[in-house]
From TrEMBL:
Keyword tRNA processing carried by entry: no
Ranges where the RNA polymerase sigma-70 region domain occurs: 22-90
Keyword field: DNA-binding, Sigma factor, Transcription, Transcription regulation
Source species: Symbiobacterium terraclitae
Domain RNA polymerase sigma factor 70 region 4 type: start-end pairs: 117-168
InterPro entries recorded: RNA_pol_sigma-70-like, RNA_pol_sigma-70_dom, RNA_pol_sigma70_r2, RNA_pol_sigma70_r4_t2, RNA_pol_sigma_r2, RNA_pol_sigma_r3/r4-like, WH-like_DNA-bd_sf
Signal peptide per UniProt: none
SUPFAM superfamilies: Sigma2 domain of RNA polymerase sigma factors (SSF88946), Sigma3 and sigma4 domains of RNA polymerase sigma factors (SSF88659)
Protein name as annotated: RNA polymerase sigma-70 factor (ECF subfamily)
Length: 185
């Protein structure tokens, strides 16, 4: 399999098949990242489409052999931040977050409940915590790559990850939060 960085170099040279390969490889992961950030399917689809449009229009800024994946997620993350800023300016009422359709399993109601709890817990994190958590654990970027994407030092990413994991644990396992409070007293 051809490495992402090589495909990106080929796209710079005008190879349309290389562009198709990158879109095929990253469309679903970028959409998943943006959907988890926005909790709105249409917004995530629009931002995903714009991410790949920007990839093509800014392909000349990619410098081989820079890692491609953090570069692409930086584009997606910056589009998300621009979307949030524009939405704040418009002050439109937010839509109720959509639910991701679960895959068929034996006990689908339990899966839906767990998924809803996770979605709600993720939405309770602040933007910085949610972004680094998604990039690191859902999309497999290293702390350094996540730092590059969100534009903060790697140490800040590690701090945000620690806080985010602690908050998620407390939200998803109330008995853990109760035990932690009783130990402090």
């Amino acid at each position: 399999m051809i490495r992402d960085e090589e495909l990106c170099r080929q796209v710079q040279e005008g190879n349309e098949a290389a562009l198709e390969a990158l879109v095929h490889r990253y469309h679903r992961p970028v959409f998943a990242y943006l959907f988890r950030l926005t909790a709105h399917r249409q917004t995530a689809e629009d931002l995903t489409q714009e991410t790949f449009t920007r990839l093509l229009t800014h392909i000349h800024t990619y410098r081989f052999p820079r890692p491609f994946r953090p570069w692409l997620y930086t584009i997606a993350h910056n589009l998300y931040r621009d979307h949030v800023k524009a939405a704040d300016r418009r002050s439109l009422p937010t839509d109720e977050p959509e639910r991701v359709r679960p895959s068929p399993v034996v006990d689908i109601s339990e899966q839906i409940a767990e998924q809803a709890a996770l979605s709600q817990a993720l939405r309770s994190l602040d933007e910085g915590e949610r972004a680094v958590l998604l990039l690191r654990f859902f999309h497999g970027l290293t702390s350094a790559e996540a730092a590059e994407v969100v534009g903060v030092p790697a140490g800040t990413v590690r701090s945000r990850l620690s806080r985010a994991v602690r908050k998620l644990r407390d939200l998803l396992d109330p008995s853990h939060a109760q035990a932690g409070r009783s130990e402090v007293r």
